[in-house]
Design goal:
Rossmann fold, alpha/beta
Length: 203
């Protein structure tokens, strides 16, 4: 899906200061489903900055890397979506990373495909992955990048069936530039530029 981008990168000394967690479900059958937009985004981030998310730790696939001068743990929890908080908590406790330095990237059915919404903090908005993270961190004070995956076709459509449905080819073409912007937004959040990220990318 993404085959360009620059290469980086060596890990700097010191302790990681950020977690970048892309949410999704493990197993290949979920790869291009709407609920795996967070995984797709951090995969793109890995390609952009030349690292691999392939080490198993904290119930996740992780990479300890440097992005734009910031040492961070980029992670794809392998707990399945509803227990994402277990993985994020274990990593945060190990490295003593505070919630405001945990950037979570995930799908949002209230946004059209291709739209983003960046927030400093907030409620779970009915998203079970975020609900789990709030519960296990005992805090909702973490920034998040929401990736639009489109509304249900009709109100009676089963929510689980919708978020576990695969993107169509035209949808993927719309999604890809949004994932690039979501990567850029995550870097701005690490830079402390939340207002700039919101002004640039909130759709």
């Amino acid at each position: 899906m993404f085959n360009r981008f620059r290469k980086q990168n060596a890990v700097s000394a010191g302790t990681p200061e950020f977690i970048v967690a892309g949410l999704g479900n493990p197993e290949g059958k979920y790869t291009l489903t709407r609920h795996n937009s967070g995984f797709l985004c951090v995969d793109m981030l890995a390609q952009k900055y030349g690292f691999k998310i392939d080490r198993l730790k904290f119930k996740s696939l992780i990479c300890d890397t440097v992005i734009n001068g910031h040492r961070c743990i980029v992670m794809k929890p392998q707990t399945f979506m509803n227990n994402s908080g277990e993985a994020v908590r274990d990593c945060a406790e190990f490295y003593k990373i505070k919630p405001e330095n945990i950037i979570v990237i995930f799908d949002d059915i209230s946004l059209d495909i291709g739209k983003l919404r960046i927030r400093r903090k907030g409620s779970d908005g009915g998203h079970n992955g975020i609900k789990s993270i709030i519960y296990h961190l005992n805090s909702d004070n973490f920034p998040r990048v929401k990736i639009g995956v489109g509304k249900k076709p009709d109100p009676d459509y089963d929510l689980a069936a919708w978020v576990l449905s695969k993107f169509t080819e035209p949808e993927l073409k719309t999604l890809e530039p949004a994932l690039e912007k979501a990567c850029d937004a995550a870097v701005l959040l690490m830079d402390g530029e939340c207002d700039k990220a919101m002004n640039l990318y909130n759709g």
